[in-house]
Design goal:
- With 144 residues, this protein is an alpha/beta fold.
- It is built from seven helices and five strands.
- Helix content is 44%, strand content 18%.
- A five-stranded mixed sheet has the order 2-1-3-4-5.
- Helix 6 crosses helix 7.
Length: 144
C-alpha cells in the first residue's frame, strides 16, 4: 500500500460521487501533500480539468516543481504529461495503465521517472466506470 496513492484514490472516489470520472491526483513535496485534485470535466463542463491539472491548480504557485512527486490513479494523458514536463516534475507514480496507456513514453523521453504500481483498486475502479459509462469515457480520452 502507498499512502499517497490511497489519497489519490480518495480523490478519484470524490469525483465519481460528484458524477464525474474517477481519476484522482496528489502532489507531494517532502512527504507532505501540497496539492490534490480529481477529474472535474463533467462537473465544471471544462474539457481540460483532468485530475492532474486540477491537482496542480489546487497546489497553486509553488515556485519550483522539480522536488515534487505527482501521484495519479491512472497513467496521465498527453495533456497532463505535458504539464508534468513543462513544470519539471521529475517523478510520477501511477495506480495503473491497463485501462489507459497514456503518455508514459513521452514522459520518460523527457526525463521523468514513471512508476506504475499496477494497483488492483485503481484497475477495478476504472474498469467498472468504463463498462458503465463508455460514451463519457470515450469523450474523456478523445475517442468519440
Amino acid at each position: 500500500m502507498d499512502k499517497f496513492l490511497d489519497e489519490a484514490i480518495i480523490e478519484a472516489k470524490r469525483g465519481l460521487l460528484e458524477g464525474g470520472i474517477p481519476i484522482g491526483s496528489i502532489l507531494v513535496r517532502d512527504e507532505m501533500i501540497i496539492g490534490r485534485g480529481h477529474n472535474r470535466r463533467v462537473q465544471q463542463n471544462n474539457p481540460i480539468i483532468h485530475a492532474e491539472i486540477d491537482c496542480l491548480m489546487n497546489a497553486g504557485r509553488i515556485g519550483n516543481y522539480r522536488d515534487t512527486i505527482l501521484y495519479s490513479t491512472l497513467m496521465p494523458c498527453y495533456l497532463c504529461a505535458g504539464a508534468v514536463v513543462q513544470f519539471g516534475i521529475k517523478k510520477v507514480v501511477v495506480g495503473e495503465s491497463r485501462t489507459f496507456s497514456g503518455a508514459v513514453e513521452f514522459m520518460k523521453e523527457h526525463g521523468v521517472e514513471v512508476i506504475n504500481l499496477d494497483d488492483n483498486v485503481c484497475i477495478g475502479m476504472m474498469k467498472d466506470f468504463i463498462t458503465s459509462n463508455p460514451v463519457l469515457w470515450n469523450e474523456d480520452i478523445g475517442k468519440l
